[in-house]
Amino acid sequence: QHYSLGVEQEVGSRLKLTAEGFYKRLGGVIVDSPVPGENLNNDGIGRIYGGEVSARLRPTTQSSGFLSYTLSRSERDDHGTGWRLFNWDQTHILTVAGAYRLGHGWDLSGTFRYVTGNPLTPVVASVYNANIDTYKPVYGAINSARSNAFHRLDLRVEKTWHVKSGSVAVYLDVQNAYNRPNEEGRAYNYNFTQSGVIAGLPILPTFGVRGEL
Questions:
Q1: 13: which residues sit within 8 A by CB, 6+ positions away?
Q2: How high is the pLDDT of residue 213?
Q3: Coil, strand, or helix at residue 10?
Q4: Residue 22: beta bridge partners?
Q5: DSSP letters for 106-120
Q6: End-to-end Cα distance, the chain
Q7: What pLDDT, on the 0 to 100 scale, is given for residue 45?
Q8: Distance from CA of residue 45 to its chain's centroid?
């Protein structure tokens, strides 16, 4: 069951503002079953709620901008033992984008994104097993910690030439322009006393040519 209520307001001819609140109720969520001989059942419930505000701006005929911010929380209760975060809960989501036509076929654009890190279950200790000479992690409460926040800036510059039957464009697209080592996972040492971040893609420039008829 998904409920939402929003409002939209135009401010002159160059700015549009929107605001929306939402609530989503989940039933019959698949969970691990505590019943002997039963692997899974549908005893889980969930809830997702929050709000979003956004703005679209066109200050001139050559420029445009967009801003969006979402505040939300997603929780689940597997067996009536209390609410905990979903694995992909993201509290804050911010997007800022803009584009500008420089003239003579040149276009410049960029997008910045910031997202709260995903929940994770922390390792709080470890136990040594002498029989197999290895350490076993001891975990804390499920999803009681978070990975580092994600943020990235993407930039694009494009040059277009118009030909008789269409156009040809050359572009340079730079993802993760300031080379942010965003966290994709965690790696631990042999006895789980230290951990390090498994980073995603570094700065990634892409050069391309596009033709349209």
A1: none
A2: 87
A3: strand
A4: 4, 50
A5: EEEEEEEEEEPPPEE
A6: 46
A7: 96
A8: 23
